[in-house]
Amino acid sequence: MTDEADIPKLMQGLGIAARDAALQLTTASTDAKNAALTGAAEALRRNQNKILSENAKDMTFGEDKGLSKAMLDRLALDEDRIEGMAKGLDDIAALPDPVGVVTDAWERPNGLKIERRRTPLGVIGVIYESRPNVTADAGALCLKAGNAAILRGGSESFHSSGAIMDCLGEGLKESGLPEAAIQLIPTRDRAAVGEMLTMTEYIDVIVPRGGKSLIERVSKESRVPLFKHLEGICHTYVTEDAAPDMAESIVLNAKMRRTGICGATETLLVDRGALPMLTRIVGGLIDAGCEVRGDAATQGVDARVRAATDEDWITEYLDSIISVKTVDGLDDAVDHIQRYGSNHTEAIITENANTAETFLNNVDSAIVMVNASTQFADGGEFGMGAEIGISTGKLHARGPVGLEQLTSMKYVVRGTGQCRP
Length: 421
Fold this sequence. Notes:
The protein is of the alpha/beta class.
């Protein structure tokens, strides 16, 4: 553990190295970046046993700390998840390089030729909890978009993230890119986070990924711009004319596939005229091990349903718990989402195309879906290779933050001697 008095010096060193690396990455070739990513992917596969050994240390630490079942699931690695990380790096390498892409071009009447190009943001800080795979995803996305990254993993994933970082370092070294292009803060000391949030001289944007308390702290203390979402209070709305089999399977998947991710449905809304469908859905959830907390109508369809309170509508459970409310049609459902939601992801299950379009137009969330599980709220599932997080803000990036969202714009103007009158 680094002494607290040494934290500012440590963080300044990381910042200086990252800024220097970012300057080199601005002109790094696509081939070099891809070589670093594929090299890191192979290093992950080669070092699988070491990573699993380090992850076992973190799992013991997490259990001793009293982490919930859902949080331990986020922390756990196995052979499939390590292969998933490696494949994610390969997938990012296969994506088109956004740096330098001309998104628009035009010529003015005075002969000036203007282009709008994508350019790296610079240095990106990523603060995350539990999930060690974020080390690979975030580092890789930042690198492919031409950015240097300073990563601060959670104390629970300290050993796992370190082992993954070693693999990223191998890829960088083999490709000839600066090893400081991706750096992991080498301490569990929380003072490092506080220092990171003030590093406006070195860091251009920070992406926090974690629970509500982390996001609130970062939002309150950061002097650096943020890509963030506070909570994932996601809704699935089942209309009266939804296909019952589809509704049941989607809701079960949206809640129970992985309860600890931000795209998991936390509140189910069902038209009051669809009580037979609600009976099936609630029964399926409870039989799958989910605790259902509902309003009076929901309690009426199954005696195992517990009474919901006002607190349930604003709770991100990240666990096998769901709140259920009956609504009087589309407008009532949208009103509930706008009042209690977190602008993350919402889905409607319906066979009525007009109802679906109205829902898509009226719900103001980063991601809106029709007849699909909210668990698809993920950059990888969107074909973006991976994501560094979900942003619910409205400036610059919204929704999954992938390669394009990790770039900014510059305008290139070519003249032939024009002077402004």
